[in-house]
Amino acid sequence: MLTSCFEKWWIPIVFWVAALGLVIVSNWTPVPFLGIASFILLTLSLLFLFGSAVYHLVYRRWLKAILTGLLGVGTIAGIILYAVFIFAMEQLDGDKWADNLTIPTNITLNTPKEQSIISSDSIGHSTGKAFDFELYNSFQPGLYEYAIWIGKTEPGTIYLKAYEVTQEYPLSTDNLAKSSSIKIINDTDSIIQFGTKDHFTIYEGDWGKPYAARFEVWFHPDNGNPDRKLTEKIYKIEGWQR
Length: 242
What we know:
This protein is of the alpha+beta class.
């Protein structure tokens, strides 16, 4: 079957065109699965093109071999040049989102603690600490983790909302609630610590451009009751440099 596809030299080219079109569409569509699928299909189409080129070289069909081979090489070269261009533009321009933001002086401003990984030994264990919420720096600016110390409560999920304080601009709304979610259950009378297992990302802003953000801790009960806000703190943060 594969040989018959190579024999019809235009089939790999049609597959390549379709895959390339899907890549272009995925760049304008906020669906992560579509981006992954388009990348896989484009990779397969390139393998298909190179396989077709080799097949036609073996049978001395020079024009077809050169055409399919050049399409594959040209696509790879185009991807590399595009990546270099995007990287260069980002380095030159940077993210200007936080350029004109100021940090108010009349607020209680916290700083994320310098602890890249929350101690797993303390997660899910009783502590002497009172109810609290703490934000931690991860391995790059803009990447964060957090821990919460909470008393007896029904099963549910803790998650975060974040806002820039001067404009009340909601931060990273597409993924923050999901990436910061923590399943909790505490049916004891003790304060228990829970924490993230991985970092979450604040995309707004750039490295070296700090601003004030209010982090709200919300609780979603498993029993279907309405979500409720547990606490909030204002932190001095930076966005992730893309």
